[in-house]
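Because discrete structure vocabularies remain unfamiliar, we reproduce here a specimen of the format, pairing a chain with its fold in token form:
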Amino acid sequence: MHEQIFIGCDIGTSSTKAVAADINGRILAHASVSYGLSKPHSSWAEQHPDVWLDAAVSAIRSVTGMLSASDRIEAVCISALYGGTGAMCDEHMKPVRPSIIWMDRRAEKESRELKETIGEENIFQVSGNGTDSYFGYTKLLWVKENEPSNWSRIRHILPIHSYVICKMTGEITVDYCSAGNVGGIYDYAEHSWSEEMCRTMEIPFHALPSRFYRPDDIVGTLNEEYQEKLGIHRPVPFCAGTVDCIASMLSAGIVHAGDNAAVLGTSLNWGFIHGKRPDNPSLISMPYCTDPLSVSYTYGGASTAGALPRWFAQNFLGEDSASAYDCLEQEIRGKAIGPGADGLIALPYFMGERTPIWDENAAGVLFGLTLSHTRAHIYRAVLESVAYSLRHIMESMTDTSSGVSKIVLVGGGARSGLWKEIFADVTGLPVCTPVQDVEAPLGDAFLAAAGTGCISGYSTIKDWTVMREPVLPAPGRHEQYSRYFALYKELYEDLKETMKKRADMLRN
């Protein structure tokens, strides 16, 4: 029998990655395509859906071009970023405007008005999620209120990966996980869109996909146009796909109730899976891929975690590359800069913040600068701020985090040896990372294998995700960091009113 190959592709905030994996989870080929974001204003972030489509085509085509025979490909599965508007398309499935993505904070007014009119508790009881400008439904309301011409042209509202899948197969679908992550207009108990919430918010119910699927369900086959573009010369099956953080959690071997992991990409998500209805409006919940009708993924998220080292390298070194990060880490070790960066504390709120503070006005801060501080100090403070953010999220989830014995860390940030040490020391917990640092695309490939029936049972992912030796907390450092962590939290509380005044000045 010929070797079975599965294609996984993840459309992320700053890049799209694809892998080809065999039935044992061995990576046969991988590719990545990078791109930037449009930021028309300081707290806005957009991308055109066709940029993501082109990147997915390019990444998958690169992977298939590395294989000896594309006829061995059994299925394709695609995941993508969410927490945004998705692709808002006209009757011809042409986007009417760029997508407003998860980190965009422009829907503050719409979020406040929802709390005053419908009430956050009512929205939470229906959707299992709170009310904030992070969620896709509040961003859709911004388009409705501010761009009536564009709004009137919308006939389809699709998650990003669903838009790409529609182009490649002709099928309009949505998976339960992505629908749940839209928030507000999803009925968590009924596992469908809420007609009542759509009517109340005046969001067009019939523009939302009517067919719901598990992420591993086969929803269509590759059409002729994209067979040529992808280098797959037959109608291979496509799975429904899912949200990128779900695929990343799966790639970390998260399949059993209570399993938890941190996903460190452009943002940071730390969460766990469980079999109960969401009960905390300060956290984010969505159905989980293993059984979306009965298992949930609940997490806290830091908005610009993994984006901060990139911002720093681009602006202080003039480049964004692995060598730049290595150079900075060598500087830190060479100067023997230890915990606390010689009294320098950063707040990582460069695009507002999600959990646990839910403050769209929150801003980045460097506190304690002196003439003795160097760029290496600042870089260490930036890395430490993300670790503080993780600890803050974990402490806000005391019912879960109290029983956590380790941190499973996946995503691009997991490649940094120094950062893993900082995470371990700040949290006081061992940090485990997979040997294969391919994160979400590997989870997608696994979903493709499960969808075709080539793999029976999600527990098999444990065989795909071999872990490295854990990075252990250094003796005494957790106690040092605990003192700085207390200052970190105090600093935000002392500044939050000033941050609001600043935001009001910028708006006016």
Remarks:
- The chain has two domains: 5-252+435-464, 307-433+475-507.
- The longest helix spans residues 477-507.
- The domain at 5-252+435-464 is CATH 3.30.420.40 (Nucleotidyltransferase; domain 5).
